[in-house]
Design brief:
single chain; 301 residues; alpha/beta; Rossmann fold; 2 domains; six-stranded mixed beta sheet; four-stranded parallel beta sheet
Length: 301
């Protein structure tokens, strides 16, 4: 079996006759792991094709996306500019300090200004201010990102026949990309990491329509595992992450993958997956979030 695939012998899965596997995309690269690298792959090629040497993007103060773009710039020879939601407050947190160490120029936008990040006039202002740049949306989700994520479904299929893929959902780009890479009876489940995530279905459908002209029906969006909202948590979630690491020697993060695996195991227990199914949950990385977690809350757990 691939070194990126790991069996998860969970009692609830055994009881339901479901084989549960974990795809370790977090192990793909020490510098640029997980779904962010896949989302950036074809965007970086397009930036090169268009003759850009600078990447400009947006994100919150603990953004995995900002960290990934900064690392990609260092690795691939781009200068990078990160427009950060919120006011600068003292020393940068671990995420932004890492971004700066990777060469990213950080600029802070108040929340009202940040809400304009998709407006063409505002983007033109930013281009005028920071110079010509290849624009990456918040979270890195666009049609080229979907192309990179579609390749993951094919990679997993080379190693194991699966019935369903399961992934955490933030902007919807990772799930949308996986959908475009599914074949035949394969399905997907997205576990929303934010509260009131029902709107994400429309976003996912719009993304796949724009990328392929199709809207897919072979997926489910689980919205009940957000633990209070984006970047929110509970003692139960933290205990689950610790227990999961104890059982499988795999560290999850509290923003995305912890909620994903909690949700997948609960869905298995509810009978969401048919007996005999093989379900592959995708560990999309994001472990840099723990440094910020420690800075905010005083400990990893």
């Amino acid at each position: 079996m691939s070194p990126f695939l790991q069996d998860l012998p969970e009692p609830v899965a055994a009881a339901r006759g479901v084989r549960l596997l974990l795809w370790r995309d977090d192990l793909m690269s020490p510098d640029l792991p997980g779904n962010k690298a896949r989302k950036l792959k074809y965007n970086l090629r397009e930036a090169r094709r268009l003759g850009h040497g600078r990447l400009l993007t947006f994100g919150g103060a603990y953004s995995n996306h900002l960290a990934a773009v900064a690392a990609a710039g260092r690795l691939h020879g781009f200068t990078t500019v990160g427009l950060v939601r919120g006011e600068a407050a003292g020393a940068p947190n671990p995420t932004l300090a890492r971004c700066a160490a990777d060469g990213m120029a950080l600029h802070y936008l108040d929340r009202a200004t940040y809400r304009r990040r998709a407006e063409p006039a505002f983007l033109a202002e930013m281009q005028a201010r920071f110079g010509p740049a290849y624009l990456l949306p918040e979270g890195g989700t666009n049609a080229l990102a979907l192309k990179g994520m579609a390749e993951l479904a094919a990679e997993i299929r080379q190693h194991v026949a699966f019935d369903a893929l399961a992934v955490a959902v933030g902007t919807g780009g990772t799930l949308a990309g996986l959908l475009t890479g599914l074949r035949g009876p394969e399905t997907a489940v997205g576990v929303a990491a934010l509260k009131n995530g029902g709107f994400l279905k429309d976003d996912i459908d719009a993304l796949t329509r724009a990328a392929t002209g199709q809207v897919f029906s072979n997926y489910a969006l689980a919205t009940g595992y957000h633990f209070g909202g984006y970047a929110k948590y509970s003692a139960d979630l933290l205990a689950f992450i610790q227990q999961f690491e104890d059982r499988h020697s795999v560290l999850l993060d509290p923003i995305y993958t912890g909620k994903l695996l909690f949700g997948v195991l609960d869905l298995i227990g509810q009978g969401h997956f048919a007996p005999g199914s093989t379900v592959v949950a995708v560990h999309t990385g994001g472990l840099q979030a723990w440094a910020g977690w420690q800075a905010r809350f005083g400990g990893r757990r």
